[in-house]
């Protein structure tokens, strides 16, 4: 009955948005209240649950998305995006530009959380799209597939890293196996799948439409690439420097502070203001005007993401993920496939890959010990399952839809299907590895 209620609530949300054209944020709030009542949450606690869900998702993303939008608009307005696109096309050529996007997404995705990587890479994607009149999904989906796979499969991302600890797996082996599984998942879900989507018309957010400038007015290649990659450099340094320092080092707390994503984005925004603004002859008032316009462009996106967080929290507090896991844990299936299936169903119901992964871990751990399943492969199986079935209760779904200007139908046909493809290909790769190393 619980799963039926969840399915009905998701159906109501889709109908409100796509059929009755109700604003997505309002639709999320209405369905969150309906879901809370139908799933038996105390009525007086439902508003607090909704507020907590909105606060949790915005608490982790508001600064990143807002600062990322400001950075992206400055990159576009200053001509840095034009310069990056021009150099990328010179190096790879239009024929291989997809593979440049895949490689960039993979390298960016290893140290960065998905949401940060998405926000930072969207301006680069759109700069290539606008400059060379290429289909947005053809260029963007390969990069985002790489970002998504690294988020779900590879430590040091939150869910895989936590699963390594819970399953007592080996971090190095998990990363090695994860790389082997990731490559075919990215290739099939990214460059190959995106070639089937050329008929879908995407209208990328206008804020990132680059201004065509004369070559002599463009910032240098160093300034352009350095500014775009500075967040990655800082976050990577914050990840690796602590491994080289003594735990008692006096500078370690400051490195950890400077490595927080919100702090990194503020540092980068200050640097970009100088490198792509003031040093290029722009006045500070003009730069602040660019930033103000960027915030206007993404205000509704922030509200929609907050709404998805509200629904996720209501579903999580209702205990639906535990009920799904309870029904499935006694099913006679290969443990790796069972773990993948549980994670996939929880992901479908609650919308969060991290929640799906961590909930599955607590259920599957006893079975894994009884069957002596390889813990490194179990981490990957849960990670692959947690990427499945991304839809209207997932913040990533809405970020993709709104940034690329897609209809709900086309977002299902592109984003949701891509996420399921990488999850299925990942499972097949894991089962194949299991046969080889068993």
UniProtKB/TrEMBL annotation:
Keywords: Cell membrane, Membrane, Transmembrane, Transmembrane helix, Transport. GO terms for cellular component: plasma membrane. Belongs to the GntP permease family. It comes from Pedobacter terrae. GO terms for molecular function: gluconate transmembrane transporter activity. The chain crosses the membrane at residues 28-46, 58-76, 96-129, 136-154, 174-193, 225-245, 251-277, 298-316, 336-365, 377-400, 420-437. Its main location: membrane. This is Gnt-I system high-affinity gluconate transporter. The lineage of its organism: Bacteria, Pseudomonadati, Bacteroidota, Sphingobacteriia, Sphingobacteriales. The keyword Magnesium does not apply. It is a multi-pass membrane protein. PANTHER family: GNT FAMILY GLUCONATE TRANSPORTER (PTHR30354), HIGH-AFFINITY GLUCONATE TRANSPORTER (PTHR30354:SF22). It is found in: Cell membrane.
């Amino acid at each position: 009955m619980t799963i039926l209620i969840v399915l009905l609530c998701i159906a109501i949300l889709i109908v409100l948005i796509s059929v009755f054209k109700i604003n997505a944020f309002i639709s999320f709030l209405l369905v969150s209240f309906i879901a809370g009542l139908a799933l038996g949450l105390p009525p007086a606690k439902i508003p607090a649950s909704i507020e907590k869900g909105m606060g949790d998702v915005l608490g982790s993303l508001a600064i990143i998305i807002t600062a990322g939008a400001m950075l992206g608009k400055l990159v576009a307005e200053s001509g840095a995006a034009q310069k990056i696109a021009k150099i990328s096309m010179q190096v790879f050529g239009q024929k291989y530009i997809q593979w440049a996007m895949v490689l960039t997404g993979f390298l960016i995705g290893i140290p960065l959380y998905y949401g940060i990587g998405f926000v930072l890479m969207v301006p680069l994607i759109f700069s290539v799209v606008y400059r060379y009149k290429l289909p947005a999904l053809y260029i963007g989906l390969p990069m985002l597939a790489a970002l998504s796979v690294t988020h779900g499969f590879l430590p040091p991302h939150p869910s895989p890293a936590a699963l390594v600890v819970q399953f007592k797996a080996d971090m190095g082996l998990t990363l090695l196996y994860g790389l082997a599984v990731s490559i075919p998942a990215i290739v099939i879900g990214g460059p190959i799948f995106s070639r089937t989507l050329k008929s879908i018309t995407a209208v990328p957010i206008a804020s990132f439409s680059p201004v065509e400038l004369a070559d002599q007015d463009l910032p240098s290649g160093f300034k352009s690439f350095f500014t775009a990659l500075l967040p990655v450099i800082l976050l990577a340094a914050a990840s690796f420097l602590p491994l080289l320092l003594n735990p008692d080092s006096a500078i370690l707390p400051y490195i950890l502070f400077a490595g927080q994503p919100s702090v990194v984005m503020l540092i980068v925004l200050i640097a970009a203001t100088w490198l792509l603004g003031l040093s290029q002859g722009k006045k500070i008032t003009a730069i602040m005007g660019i930033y103000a316009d960027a915030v206007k462009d993404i205000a509704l996106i922030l509200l929609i993401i907050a709404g998805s967080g509200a629904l996720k929290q209501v579903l999580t507090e209702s205990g639906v993920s535990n009920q799904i896991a309870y029904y499935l844990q006694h099913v006679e299936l290969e443990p790796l496939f069972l773990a993948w299936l549980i994670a996939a169903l929880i992901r479908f119901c609650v919308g969060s890959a991290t929640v799906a992964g961590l909930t599955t871990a607590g259920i599957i751990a006893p079975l894994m010990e009884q069957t002596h399943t390889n813990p490194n492969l179990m981490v990957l199986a849960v990670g692959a399952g947690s990427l499945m079935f991304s839809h209207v209760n997932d913040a990533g779904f809405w970020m993709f839809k709104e940034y690329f200007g897609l209809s709900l139908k086309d977002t299902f046909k592109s984003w949701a299907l891509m996420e399921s493809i990488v999850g299925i290909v990942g499972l097949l790769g894991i089962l194949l590895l299991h046969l080889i190393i068993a």
